[in-house]
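Service request form, structural biology core

Requester: graduate student, group of Dr. S.
Request type: structure prediction, single chain
Budget code: on file
Notes: please return the result as structure tokens.

Sequence provided:
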Amino acid sequence: MAHDIVFFLAADDETAAATRLRGPGEAFESVTCRFIEPDSAIAEWDMYYEEPSAEAPPVERLLGWVWPEWVTAPLNDGVEVFALPQRLTRALANASSAELEELAGRWTSRVRSEYLIHIPIFDGRGVLGWGGVRGIRSARRACV
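Core staff response, request fulfilled:
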């Protein structure tokens, strides 16, 4: 599972690729998340807008979905730069607050059910423990 994930909006793939070694820094508005799988999250969010459903998708359906493309080739250093599908980028930009809340609620419910014992609870100084709804709610606020 990935540790620090930074979502940001770049003008094009070349601009995004240039951030690979140093991150987006202050040049791009960004949102940082921790301990999520960015490629599966992106695929699930894209699926939500393409085929809206109140339920989380079955794992088999998620694994069969088109996954985000790499902007830079993955190396063995843990850094990956993905391009979000255009459909997802447009959908997120045009989504209402209620739609974003619905997506966040559904997604965090799935994460909670799959990874309850693996989700860290932070107090700003480090990990307090693992699991629990408090950690999920904090992650939800931080990532959406």
